[in-house]
Structure to design on (429 residues):
């Protein structure tokens, strides 16, 4: 059996995704980080960005995560985010509209959020 | 129909209408309690993981942070009071307000100046009527609070605690909310949110004897703690808001249930009175007829002679 780690992606008001995975790639404030089973215990601050989870069935789950934490210990990985959306939950048109609006209003953080959503949606 | 009877009938009709309304409100509140409880449950995983992480950083590193260290001589404190926007919930709001007042009094006895922050129109109205100073107030979302609302409430509080006390910041943050114990029991509690008592947080979360792993912090323990603690405060406030909402709906349900019961009792009493009035009316009519007939009989018997 290939080594696995248990992943729980939780947003403030719900559990977004949980299951077994072989690799998780997330963006921390100091750069992208990949976590595989048996990684050393880790606690990091996440940037808003896409998170890629390679499930043990060989599939890939992509989620847009806006701010939060990654914590890993005992082969259990938790991704805590204030807002998290799976790529197939993202409404691309709405995100595009949000991106345009953010650009016209020069709202950098909103622009970044919309951009992250679009990139996560494109990766599915 | 006699005047008395008509009055009773009218009152029965109006009480019946009231009873229908309170019954409907009771059922709405009952369904909302369930929804609110579900939201509390849905927010638990995040809160748990966050608390675990805070404990891990707090105990796993020797970092000192303004949000975890107690001021040597605390002089100012903030109290956040959670009430509801609407009443009709029995003693729900007055209990929370009373708890906040007791806490404020205690803090003032300890020589601290208290800033009050209020959520919910009821609490705001209470303080405004007594012309007490309110640092900031938030209304309009107490029935179904979202995480964004919690962030909005938490922002000025975090700002106040990070500011130096001399510049109008605070040393301590207390929160008063109504804990949802069960459908029948909700208690107003006051708790100190900040500075954090790490040993207590640890007691709350970790199962007995669990040893937390030695974490590798990314980018550094200070930065993680910096980012973590505001989120922790927000999540605690979010949890308190949700519990308050659930408690409020449970209190409404109970209040409306007793209102419905009372209306039913009133209808019973009134229909008994109405029945008695109808009987009295019939008896009187019969005696009038009998009296009239016998008077007539007496008169004709007299005229024969």
């Amino acid at each position: 059996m290939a080594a696995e780690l248990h992943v729980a992606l939780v947003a403030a008001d719900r559990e977004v995704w949980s299951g077994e995975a072989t690799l998780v790639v997330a963006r921390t404030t100091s750069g992208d980080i990949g976590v595989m089973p048996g990684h050393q215990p880790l606690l990091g601050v996440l940037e808003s960005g896409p998170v890629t989870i390679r499930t043990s069935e060989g599939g890939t789950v992509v989620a847009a995560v806006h701010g939060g934490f990654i914590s890993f210990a005992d082969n259990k990985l938790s991704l805590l985010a204030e807002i998290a959306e799976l790529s197939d939950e993202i409404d691309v048109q709405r995100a595009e509209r949000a991106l345009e609006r953010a650009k016209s209003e020069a709202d950098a953080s909103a622009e970044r959020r919309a951009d992250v959503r679009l990139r996560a949606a494109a990766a599915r | 129909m006699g005047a008395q009877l008509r009055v009773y009938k009218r009152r029965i009709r109006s009480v019946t209408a009231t009873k229908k309304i309170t019954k409907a409100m009771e059922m709405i509140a009952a369904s909302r309690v369930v929804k609110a409880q579900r939201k509390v449950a849905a927010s638990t995983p995040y809160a748990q993981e966050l608390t675990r992480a805070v404990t891990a950083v707090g105990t796993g590193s020797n970092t000192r942070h303004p949000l975890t260290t107690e001021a040597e001589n605390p002089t100012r404190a903030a109290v956040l009071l959670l009430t509801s926007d609407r009443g009709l919930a029995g003693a729900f709001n007055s209990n929370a307000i009373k708890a906040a007042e007791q806490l404020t009094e205690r803090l003032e006895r300890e020589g601290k100046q208290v800033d009050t922050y209020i959520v919910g129109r009821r609490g705001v109205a209470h303080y405004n009527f007594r012309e007490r100073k309110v640092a900031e107030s938030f209304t309009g979302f107490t029935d179904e609070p979202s995480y964004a609302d919690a962030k909005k409430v938490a922002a000025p509080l975090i700002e106040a605690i990070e500011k130096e006390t001399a510049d109008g910041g605070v040393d301590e943050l207390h929160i008063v909310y109504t804990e949802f114990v069960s459908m029948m029991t909700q208690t107003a509690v006051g708790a100190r949110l900040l500075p954090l008592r790490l040993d207590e947080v640890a007691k709350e979360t970790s199962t007995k004897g669990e040893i937390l792993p030695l974490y590798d912090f990314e980018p550094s323990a200070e930065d993680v703690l910096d980012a973590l603690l505001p989120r922790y405060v927000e999540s605690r406030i979010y949890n308190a808001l949700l519990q308050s909402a659930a408690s409020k709906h449970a209190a409404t349900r109970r209040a409306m249930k007793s209102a419905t019961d009372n209306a039913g009792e009133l209808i019973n009493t009134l229909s008994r009175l109405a029945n008695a009035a109808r009987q009295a009316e019939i008896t009187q009519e019969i005696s009038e007829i009998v009296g009239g007939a016998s008077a007539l009989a007496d008169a004709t018997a007299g005229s024969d002679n």
